[in-house]
Write a structure and sequence with these properties.
homodimer, mainly alpha, Neurolysin, domain 3, 64% helix, 3% strand
Chain lengths: 498, 498
């Protein structure tokens, strides 16, 4: 006789395996699929989603959860597994299927409209779709919030980063706002007097791929359980045993693609090192998007954009590109380190450096929190956006919706509550890296030699092997200290102002 | 209220969409998947197979079929759809799940053992696995034969080529045996006095791919709904709206890969032109493997290995390869046409030319029929194989199991009843092409100009658009005449002996 807990494990394993199918098909759609088969692929994905949905919401899961929660035999990790199962089951069942259907259609429609209307800078045309998405998302989030006993925005946060709270987000973002404008000014002032050489040239994509794979391997990506490919939008996809990252290349410039690859490699290494004994169980999965972003940003911002890493990567970069550049002096270790730490105020979040990035995120958090809590109307978003852009970055987006409030896919796709994960990822990455430096003082000189074993072993022990045993903030506290912006602020100070 | 027929359509559409997921994952496994994820992929595929199995065997399908068969409103194509649904449902339910499980395990084990033991020429080691597979396959086939009211080998044939019968296979194979040995002798004698130049050189894989895609496009492959990739064993996979063919390249020689691509292109074009209005329904699927092979062999043997096609393809071949060959005269149209029609007695079926190929298939048919019907024991296979190889091709395989009875994956994988499809494909292709020449006398000169519209339009009207409305032999009769070896014999005579 299987216990209720064992039944839950069996069901979630089954769901995980089918979700793996969905992930690979999603990767294939972005990377391999010929254009003419998108209708048929959508139908296959919808069918598969339906099968998974049915397996996920069946009422016996509720019964098993009730029994498993009272099971005195469970070990701590099994209890955490039940906690995660309950969270997932609650998310899957909180919203009645009729509302869910409406939401799926509204999100898909609004995302499609956004793709066209953004290019046309047509906010007025897009507004009704965003209003519909927001209305339905608010309704669904309210139902989830009630079931989980959370506030509205806490419920939205929790679907992406379980354990993150509005209160903590507001506290840390307020702190960042208190120093960020001055910091940006100071960094820009300092960098104005520095000489940086742009590496002009034409960089063959084959050489960029070879370099990317070489450095991925050096930092620890396991090609036995993963791949690197190309897609229009870079992402980390696939499955835990088959992690597939993508990038896009431009022949004019190689550092964006390379840093993008190293960012996705951070995501990938987390997935590749999740605990195998919990493969397919919720407790064995990554601990939410804030922690996931911390892993990509630790690899990109803390490691790869450091002077030490460029000292290691410089020879490889010159080996691949010396013959393709017009000014070989631009490929010196020192100049490369400068190139990957340029700071610039800009309109576009995804192009932002690590110093200005929090301003973009804080702006979005403040607006989406107010939108969801009905304190801000969709029609007033452009004015609010413009006001905050001026305050935080000194830029006006008046009339420029394309590079303003229409630039991101998140709201058109109904993903309210995601944005804080980016900056929390950066804050957590800084705090984790500071902790690594504490326990392993030689880590920077190891990185300069291309030796990431110290970084890897700390992350393995403290983050990767833990899966979802702890929720976001509890995990941070358990392996370092309660989350604060201190390490992030010190990191920016040290890298950009010392 | 849905009628029973409508319920059947909905269920089979659902199954088809999930089977599409399985096909893409299968393609991915062979073409893209990193080695370390095979365990996890197998589990995902097994889970998906289980979902599809449950949807396919549920008893309500039997009830719906009973009602649909008595529905006077159904159109002829819908009736054919019900016929195919019933065949599939019978195949899926004839074998109890316990036996089916055993069979799956035995086939997988024996195929794995075969991969190792073939290389070691170890027949004695492999024999027990093949005995187990045969025993269980025989049991399963007997259950299917009873349910469908067919003889044992007819039931085996029907799972691959519905409507093909042992009687017709025996009749046509007997006819081929009556002339083939003399024909082979005559062709070899004639070719001995001909001069053929081997195109020595090193042919870059990128150039081979470019040529392959150029010629695929020229014969009609639609790249909006398909791809060309590389894999260890060439195949045509993917889905009807996303047909993915593969090949493997050698830098030493380019014609094998190119002809392989054109062969798979024949399979692919059939899939790409199946009737869209029946997408996802059994009646909209290809009409079995004999017809499928007829499409690949029509494209490869009738079209691509013709002197006319080489007149068209010659300039493209020279454009890509003139700089890579040591003897450019080998790339003349005339020499290329000779190269793709070389005949040679050999041990290996997959390397055989179209003249000797039927001998390989007839041998296998005779043995597998007798094995299935318990008139031949597994232990006696090597002797029987050797005897027939000597009789049909004058070659001894004594002690050489590797290149003898252990060369094919079919029996280790339990695929008894498949082999006749290859030679029936060749016979049907010859008969179809003869009919095309009849109704469109200029077709060969069209091919010489790279214009395949005549071939395509006949195939569209007579084969591709028909899906599975008719079973194998009925389809052939309806669009040409009752199947006979006459056209195949005339084709060999004309191409090789005139």
């Amino acid at each position: 006789m299987m216990t209720s807990y064992e039944k839950l494990e069996a069901r979630f394993l089954q769901i995980s395996r089918l979700n793996d199918a969905r992930s690979i098909l999603g990767w294939d759609e972005a990377v391999m699929m010929p254009t003419g088969s998108s209708d048929s692929r959508n139908q296959t994905l919808a069918e598969l989603a339906g099968v998974i949905q049915n397996l996920s919401i069946s009422p016996e899961i509720g019964d098993w959860l009730g029994e498993a929660e009272g099971d005195p035999q469970l070990l701590p990790a099994q209890k955490a597994n039940v906690r995660e199962m309950k969270r997932i089951y609650t998310e899957m069942t909180a919203v009645p299927s009729e509302l869910n259907q409406k939401l799926v259609v509204a999100r898909m429609t609004s995302e499609q409209k956004w793709r066209t209307l953004r290019g046309q800078n047509d906010w007025a045309g897009f507004m009704p779709y965003m209003e519909e998405v927001l209305k339905l998302t608010r309704e669904a989030t309210r139902l989830l919030a009630e079931k989980r006993g959370l506030s509205l925005y806490d419920a939205a946060l929790s679907t992406f980063s379980n354990g993150l709270t509005t209160q903590v987000v507001e506290k840390l973002f307020t702190e960042i706002k208190s120093f960020l404008p001055d910091t940006i000014n100071a960094v820009l002032h300092k960098q104005k007097s520095e000489t940086v050489i742009m590496p002009e040239g034409s960089y063959p994509i084959a050489a960029q791929k070879a370099l990317a794979k070489e450095l991925m391997g050096a930092v620890g990506f396991n090609f036995e359980n993963g791949r690197l490919d190309e897609s229009h939008h870079p992402f980390c996809g696939g499955t835990q045993r088959d992690v597939r990252i993508t990038t896009r290349y431009s022949e004019k410039e190689f550092l964006s693609a390379l840093m993008g690859v190293l960012h996705e490699t951070g995501h990938a290494m987390y997935e590749q090192h999740l605990p195998l004994k919990w493969l397919g169980q919720p407790v064995g999965a990554a601990a939410g998007m804030a922690i996931h972003e911390s892993q990509s940003l630790l690899m990109e911002m803390q490691v790869s954009r450091s002077a030490e890493f460029m000292h290691f990567a410089g020879p490889a970069i010159r080996k691949h590109f010396a013959v393709h550049t017009k000014n070989p002096e631009a490929l010196s270790d020192e100049n490369l380190a400068k190139l990957v730490t340029r700071v610039k105020r800009g309109y576009i979040r995804v192009d932002a450096d690590e110093v200005t990035y929090p301003a973009h995120v804080i702006l979005r958090f403040e607006l989406e929190r107010d939108l969801l809590e009905d304190r801000l109307q969709v029609k007033d978003v452009p004015a609010a956006w413009n006001e905050k852009m001026k305050a935080y970055l000194g830029l006006s987006t008046e009339g420029n919706y394309k590079d303003g409030c229409m630039q991101d896919v998140h709201w058109p796709a109904g993903l309210f509550g995601y944005f804080p994960a980016y900056t929390f990822g950066a804050i957590i990455a800084a705090q984790f890296f500071a902790r690594i430096e504490q326990v392993r003082p030689g880590v920077r000189s190891e990185i300069a030699k291309g030796n990431l074993s110290g970084v890897q072993s700390w992350l393995t022990d403290n983050v990767w092997s833990k899966g979802s045993e702890l929720t976001t903030l509890d995990l941070v506290t358990a392996v370092s200290e309660p989350l604060s912006v201190a390490s992030f602020r010190a990191h920016i100070q040290k890298r950009y102002l010392s």
